[in-house]
Structures are given as structure tokens and as C-alpha cells.
Design goal:
mainly alpha; hpI Integrase, Chain A; 2 domains; 3-stranded antiparallel β-sheet; two-stranded antiparallel ribbon; 14 helices
């Protein structure tokens, strides 16, 4: 996604996937800080490439220096809507309006940023819902084959305490199709090992229960019984719900960056050349369920999607399943 039109303001820098800052030293504004947090989220949780992150950074910094953005960006949708309207109109800051594809990309960048801010409590209302410009068409997500998933999981043998934790996390992500933020946000009491269930609080505080297969349960049990107790001794936060499920060696809740690094390292060890992220396991979970004959509504519930339209994205990836059903069901197949 190359960036075109606009540039980062002189003297200010926001790393693609890091905190905000400047060459001259002034503290970043609240808007710049929020942009930095969003870029970190895109890099660590979504696993976006550096080129894509640079495009997002350019788009958002161009917005950051637009009229009134620094002061009132979080108050209403008027500022981002006015900014997008300016991009669409000839003249003004540019000699000509942006191409429709570029304009849609700019709108998508802002929409994603504002949705992140709403989810993180940085803005009080869902301002993104008031952007009326068309979205970019969605790209089909990268999905691993079953054999690739097996290689990925088995690349972490659990030879060390940290390895046991990492294998348990990998198994859970694929077994339950969790977002990485959901998995890392789990507390111990949210996991029922005997019942093979995990209670998840997803987007919009929607709660769901997701079954977890026997293999993932076995690795979780090993981690919880043999590794976690020693690390939990270093935990200094609230201990309600049994404390964090996934901990670092220092007794802190495991963060997104460490999880992203672990999964990319496991992919390299498994010989998987195409870059993956924690979300790749979620995509693979959904696709493999549909290819195995699962009902679309069931997959929607398991993923925690508010709309079936989001889940339908995976139906485009299951051509082999459709051909298999046809071969078994049609009398002349």
C-alpha cells in the first residue's frame, strides 16, 4: 500500500510501530501519542509489513497537521470528515484532488485509527461510524494449510519453561481462534481445563465461551501446573480471577510484542516463508472449520463476530470444501 499525497510534518517523527517523538525533543501531542499506539497495535497484533505501516504513518501524520486536528480530533467527527472532504476537492493544499483509490485508502486509515481509539477508550464515541466515504475492498487473509499449522505448532517443543508457555499459547490461538489481545487478556479463572472451555471477553465487551481441544488443554495444563506458579510469584497487579493466565518470566502479563516475536520465530523454525502474525492462526481456525463442514453461524459465534457479513469473508477461501460437498451430494458428480 504505497503512500501518495501528503507527507509527515517536518521535525516530527512517529516510528512505524513505536511511540511518538521528535528530533527537537518536544513532547508529542495527545493525537501523535494515539497515532503511535495505533501503529504499534498494527505492527504487533495485526503483523502489518513495514511498508504498509509507513503508509499508515504518512496518512495519519498528514491528518495530524490539518486544521484543528491537534485540538479537537477526539471531540467529534467534524475534523476528520472536513479533512477528507478537503482531500476530495481540487485546489487548497493540493493542486488536484486525490484519486478515488487513494482517497478511500486515506478514509480507511482514519476509520481504522478512530475505531482503535474508541476500543481503547481514547475517544468517547464511535466517530468512525460517521465517516461516509466508501471503504477499500477487503483483501482475503493469508491462511495456513493444516500441515503448515502442525509444523508451526510442533516447532515449539516445550523444552524450556518459556517454550511450554509459548506452545500453550500457540495451541490455544489455533484451537479457539482467539484474537491475540483476547488470549493475552485471559485470567486463570477464565479457563476451564476439565470442561475444555475458555471464557472470552471480545470487542464491544461481548462475552463468549469457546471450546478448546484436548491437545491444547494438555499443553495449558502443563504450563499452568509446572511453569506458571513460579512466575506468578512476581506478579504485583490485582489477583482477581486468579491473575493473568499468560505471564512473562518476570511475572508480568505477557505483551503483544513478545507474542508476535514468538510466532514469527516459530514460523521461521517451521520453514514457513510467508510472513504470519497471531491473526493468521485465527484466520486458519475459521477456514479449517468451514472446510470441515462447520455451519457459518457457529463459526461466527466462535469468532465473536457481531455480523455474519464479517464471517462470510472466509467462505471465499473454502473452494475445496464446496467441491467436496458437490462431489458427495450430486448424483451426477
Amino acid at each position: 500500500m504505497p503512500a501518495d499525497g501528503g507527507s509527515a510534518p517536518a521535525g516530527r517523527t512517529i516510528p512505524a510501530g513505536g511511540r511518538t517523538g521528535s528530533a527537537a525533543g518536544p513532547d508529542p501531542s495527545p493525537l501523535e501519542t494515539a497515532i503511535g499506539e495505533y501503529l504499534t497495535y498494527l505492527r504487533v497484533e495485526r503483523g502489518l509489513s513495514e511498508a504498509t505501516l509507513r503508509a499508515y504513518r504518512t496518512d495519519l501524520l498528514d491528518f495530524a497537521v490539518s486544521k484543528d486536528a491537534a485540538k479537537t480530533w477526539a471531540a467529534s467527527a467534524e475534523v476528520p470528515v472536513r479533512y477528507l472532504s478537503m482531500l476530495a476537492a481540487p485546489g487548497g493544499r493540493r493542486r488536484a484532488s486525490l484519486r478515488p483509490t487513494t482517497l478511500r485508502r486515506r478514509a480507511a486509515s482514519l476509520r481504522g485509527f478512530y475505531r482503535f481509539c474508541f476500543a481503547e477508550g481514547l475517544v468517547e464515541t464511535d466517530l468512525a461510524s460517521r465517516f461516509d466515504l466508501p471503504r477499500q475492498s477487503r483483501l482475503l487473509p493469508h491462511v495456513l494449510t493444516v500441515e503448515e499449522v502442525e509444523r508451526l505448532l510442533e516447532s515449539e517443543t516445550g523444552a524450556t519453561p518459556a517454550g511450554v508457555r509459548d506452545r500453550a499459547l500457540l495451541e490455544l490461538l489455533y484451537a479457539a481462534g482467539l484474537r491475540i489481545s483476547e488470549a493475552l487478556g485471559l485470567d486463570r479463572d477464565f479457563v476451564d481445563l476439565d470442561g475444555g472451555l475458555v471464557r472470552v471477553v471480545g470487542k464491544g465487551d461481548r462475552e463468549r465461551q469457546v471450546p478448546v481441544g484436548d491437545i491444547a488443554v494438555d499443553w495449558l495444563r502443563q504450563y499452568i501446573d509446572e511453569v506458571r506458579p513460579a512466575w506468578l510469584a512476581g506478579w504485583h497487579g490485582e489477583s482477581r480471577h486468579g491473575g493473568p493466565l499468560f505471564l512473562s518470566i518476570r511475572g508480568e502479563r505477557l505483551d503483544r510484542r513478545r507474542a508476535w516475536e514468538m510466532i514469527t520465530s516459530a514460523a521461521r523454525a517451521a520453514g514457513i516463508e510467508q510472513g504470519i502474525s497471531p491473526h493468521t492462526l485465527r484466520h486458519s481456525f475459521a477456514t479449517h472449520l468451514l472446510e470441515g463442514g462447520a455451519d457459518l453461524r457457529v463459526v461466527q459465534e466462535l469468532l465473536g463476530h457481531a455480523s455474519i457479513n464479517t464471517t462470510q469473508l472466509y467462505t471465499h477461501l473454502t473452494g475445496e470444501r464446496i467441491k467436496d460437498v458437490y462431489a458427495r451430494a450430486h448424483p451426477r458428480a
